[in-house]
Amino acid sequence: MPKVKGKSKTTRLLARFSTIAGELGYPDTVRDAKGAAFKFYTEEGNLDWVFLNPEVFNLRDPAKFASLVHAKKRDPATNLLDANMLWDFLSSHPETFNALMRNYTDEGTPKSYSRLVISSVNTYTFTKRKSPTEWDHHLVRIKLVPATPIDPDKDWFTYDEATTMAGKDPDYLTRRLYDEIQRGQFPTWKVSAQILDPAKTSVDVLDATKVVPASDCPWIEFGQLKLNELPQNYFTQVEQAAFTPANIVPGWDISPDPILQIRLLSYGDSQRYRLGANHDQLPPNRACSYVYDPTRRNGAHSLTNYANAPNYIGSSGRDLKKPDHYNISFLKWQGNISRYLSKVEDVDYKQCREHWDTLSGPQQSRFISNVASSVAPASLPVRIATIAVFTKIWQAKGHETPPGPSPEKLTEDLKDRINERLENNKSKGSRLGIVPGGEGSDDLSYIPPTFPDPSTRPVPDIYERV
Ligand code: HEM
């Protein structure tokens, strides 16, 4: 089994794709960020890449994570997904909008997991020995780009297509990934690294809500990732898999990125609950290399218990070589340690605006429709707060803002489309026997999350549009 790093090396890996808000069995074409987790079985242990599409995360303050997840999940009273909860949280935390700017384009409804740009989002560290006593360290982000370039018109569903597909085949993305591999159309990505030099960019390289522009720190391609094998038993090989950013190997290290720091603890915590104390000994999780960690033993279903070895590391008489990267400190800090990472500043809106400027006219129009459909069922104050964040984004100055509709015009457009949906849902709601929450349009309490966009019609034969 070769090391993961080095020229012309091939390393076997396990991949798992996921949606975030919906439970198992929930339609996978409903708009959502997508998770992509990879476990590389290297000769130095397992390296996990637990990555995401889009390329930025919603938060930089990990303390908010539980609330973000809960706002996306079901309402505790109704057990329904709830636009009010979602947009209440999002609009009161505008740092979430840079991710949202991507997720509410058609990028949020891809036609295949194989057509995703997948990013590390968090910042990690490349380490390499320079001399017996010196090391090179580089802060780094990773990106996987499909080997065949993405064509948004072919590779992304529109909202109505995704909605129709959600009913026709709730497992569409999973089925398609399986089919592609079975037919030998192996999903393949080019893997690139962005070496982050804080001196070369004004963006905080440890802020997961921000893109570091390629013009500041270019991307360097260094490998390829291909999925060419299917599991034989879903439960054993996929369901029981446990990925965590804490699984690292020499050459790859963590960084002080606050979101990453919390992730180092929370995945293992969840997995000890989900799979049990010794989940790292299950077939998909155990390393193919020799592992010696006698501090971790006993507990339910322990299969490898180190016989009579002492239960600590560093016992006399055992010539254990310390790993090369042991205890090397490389970051020099200057500045303050701060408690609150939540303050939203102009730069938060600026990156949103910059992304908006990269969208074509039709993509911008569909973005506004997608947001309107999602936010329409929320209460009036939440709708007002959401519109206000978008106005700030449209008012922000990007790099080179191209000519286009004014912020006022865009804001009016969003308001109009929200109102259009409210009217539509009011009439459809009574026809479907759905009980509105009150008399006024502002009080409508429920619109199915996959309700077709009123400005379009469901696609008659969705498979022809795929
Ligand atoms: C404060 C921030 C975050 C926390 C606390 C957190 C926590 C978790 C937890 C507990 C799980 C379930 C693990 C399991 O049961 O196996 C999970 C799954 C996942 N997370 Fe996060 N997460 C955070 C941010 C992120 C970010 C920034 C990314 C990507 C860059 C990410 C990618 C994923 C993926 C891909 C999965 C599914 C992995 C799989 O297939 O097992 N998460 N997360």
Describe the structure.
The protein has 466 residues and is an alpha+beta fold. It has two domains: 13-281, Beta Barrel (Catalase HpII,  Chain A, domain 1), CATH 2.40.180; 346-426, no CATH class. It is 30% helix and 14% strand. It has twelve helices and nine strands. It has helices at residues 65-72, 83-91, 97-103, 152-155, 159-168, 172-182, 234-239, 258-274, 346-358, 361-375, 380-395, 407-431, and strands spanning 13-19, 34-42, 45-53, 118-119, 124-129, 135-146, 188-196, 219-226, 252-253. The strands form two sheets. Strands 4, 5, 6, 7, 8 and 9 form a six-stranded antiparallel β-sheet that branches. Strands 1-2-3 form a three-stranded antiparallel β-sheet, with no helix packed on it. Strand 5 and strand 6 form a beta hairpin. Helix 1 (65-72) packs antiparallel against helix 2 (83-91), helix 2 crosses helix 11 and helix 9 (346-358) packs across helix 11. It is globular. It starts with 12 loop residues before the first strand and ends in a 35-residue tail after the last helix. The chain binds protoporphyrin IX containing FE (HEM). Keywords: Heme, Iron, Metal-binding, Oxidoreductase, Peroxidase. Heme binds at residue 267. Residues 3-321 form the Catalase core domain. This is Peroxisomal catalase A. Pfam families: Catalase.
CATH architecture of the largest domain: Beta Barrel
Shape: globular
Instruction: Write the H/E string, N to C.
Output: EEEHHHEEEHHHEEHEHHHHH
Number of beta-strand segments: 9
Tally of domains: 2
What CATH first level of the largest domain would be assigned? Mainly Beta
Residue fraction in strands: 5-15%
| Unreliable segments of 5+ consecutive residues | 431-452
The helical percent reads 25-40%
Mean pLDDT: 87
Which small-molecule species are bound to the chains here? protoporphyrin IX containing FE
Oligomer: single chain
C-alpha-based Rg, rounded: 24 Å
**Structure class:** alpha+beta
Number of helices: 12
What name does the CATH topology of the largest domain carry?
Catalase HpII,  Chain A, domain 1
Family: Belongs to the catalase family.
Region (Disordered): 421-466
GO molecular function, one term: heme binding
Cofactor: heme
